[in-house]
Design goal:
This protein is of the alpha+beta class. The protein is built from twelve helices and ten strands. The radius of gyration is 21 Å and the shape is globular. The model has no long low-confidence stretch (mean pLDDT 97). Bound molecules: flavin-adenine dinucleotide. The site of flavin-adenine dinucleotide has 23 residues, from strand 1, strand 3, helix 11 and helix 12.
Length: 373
């Protein structure tokens, strides 16, 4: 049922406006409300905050289907930025903070984002430099964050900061829920290769005062919160990459059946058929692996091997997406180079999937450590 609804929603509410939103560099805010009304912003969240509990398999079905039929990572990253911004608050915030933040976001009234990456680097989270100095019942935040999805619009930003300036490593890091209208917070929009309709921001904090009540979890325990949060983000990215790969396959197959060359539809040329099969091989292996990993998450079997598999799946799924985008553009020929085809857009969106949420190199490094190699 979710798959049917998501397909209809993508085809009627997103695809018709997508090209214009990509040109404009933003999608309408009403999209949040529409997704909330369907219960999709709150999927997987507790009922007491307006959510609908759902296992990973169902959440994945939504991401895969929306990805497949919108063919837009920009919509998915922007409209669902709360899926990386909210979990730290939900899992580690005080009851009062959760009540203040979560219901408004799940109902589409407010937008949430996550800010970890800094101009000095994103992979080495333990080295982050943004500071939060305690002053009475506030923290005073100074520093910068970069490449923040929904950073321009966000009403709540879960920010990783260094609360202990004597501890330059992981132990000095904490997380704060920063209101988007805080004095001293300035934002500027960044131009990108893809995900054009999502907003991506550079944030500056100049003496931003954040109440101590907005501390997420304990002081000095932020690094673990950040790291645990990545597992969900990476599974969601794998589901999205799968949907995007299927979108490329659908477009390429449909084109190959229509397009004629040398007296026949190009799908009748063996080389083209083999390209499509090569795509399907990668799509089906990604689907099976994602299912296995999310089943284990649903059954609380999330040990080091599972973490390693999440990292490896993130790489496998995004490599599958890269392969499928490349093959689809090739099958579409000159048309694959034209704006307006999904394959062209996805071809431009591949690199962020391979870099964001932990780059390919970092995924291999983390997997090797979890596996004890
Ligand atoms: C469109 C977009 C949206 C994003 N959204 C968000 C967001 O909402 N919130 C957020 O916090 N961040 C966000 N990011 C940031 C993203 O998570 C980082 O770009 C990513 O983690 C990599 O960090 P970096 O760009 O600083 O690269 P760096 O850490 O500087 O790395 C550069 C290169 O060196 C490699 N490298 C680094 N260390 C090693 C090593 N030990 N061994 C081998 N190779 C290494 C990396 O793999 C990479 O190839 C977003 C990025 C983009 C492009």
């Amino acid at each position: 049922m979710i798959e049917d609804m998501a397909r209809r929603f993508a085809e009627t509410e997103i695809r018709p406006g997508l090209e214009a939103w990509e040109e404009a560099g933003e999608f309408p805010r009403e999209l949040y409300t529409k997704l909330a009304e369907l219960g999709w912003l709150g999927m997987g969240y507790p009922e007491e905050y307006g959510g609908t509990p759902a296992p990973w398999s169902v959440r994945n079905a939504l991401s895969i289907t929306l990805g497949r039929y919108t063919g837009s990572g920009g919509i998915m990253a922007g409209a669902f930025s709360h899926t990386i911004g909210l979990p730290p608050i939900l899992r580690h915030g005080s009851a009062e903070l959760k009540q203040r933040v979560v219901p408004d976001v799940l109902s589409g009234r407010k937008i949430a984002a996550l800010a970890i990456t800094e101009p000095g680097g994103g992979s080495d989270v333990a080295a982050l430099r943004t500071t939060a100095r305690r002053d009475g019942d506030h923290y005073v935040v100074d520093g910068e964050k970069v490449f923040i999805t929904s950073g321009m619009r966000a009403d709540w930003i879960s920010v990783a900061v260094r609360t202990d300036s004597d501890n330059k490593g992981a132990g000095g890091i904490s997380m704060l829920a920063m209101p988007g209208d805080a004095a001293g917070l300035s934002r500027s929009a960044l131009k990108k290769m893809g995900w054009l309709c999502s907003d991506t921001a550079h944030l500056r904090f100049d003496g931003v005062r954040v109440p101590v009540a907005n501390l997420i979890g304990e002081e000095g325990k932020g690094f673990k919160i950040v790291m645990t949060n990545f597992n969900g983000e990476r599974m969601a990215l794998a589901a999205l990459a799968l949907g995007m790969s299927e979108c490329c396959y659908d477009e390429a197959l449909s084109w190959a059946r229509e397009r004629k060359a040398f007296g026949s539809a190009i799908v009748n040329h063996q080389v083209i058929r083999h390209k499509l099969v090569d795509m399907r091989m990668r799509i089906e292996s990604t689907r099976a692996w994602l299912q296995s990993i999310s089943d284990r998450a649903d059954n609380d079997q999330m040990g080091p091997e599972w973490v390693a598999e999440v990292c490896m799946l993130k790489n496998h799924s995004t490599q599958a997406m890269q392969f499928c985008a490349d093959q689809a553009v090739q099958i579409l020929g000159g048309m694959g180079f034209m704006r307006g085809t999904a394959s062209e857009r996805i071809y431009r969106e591949v690199k962020v999937a391979m870099i964001g949420g932990g780059s390919e190199e970092i995924m291999k490094e983390l997997a090797s450590r979890q596996l004890g190699i």
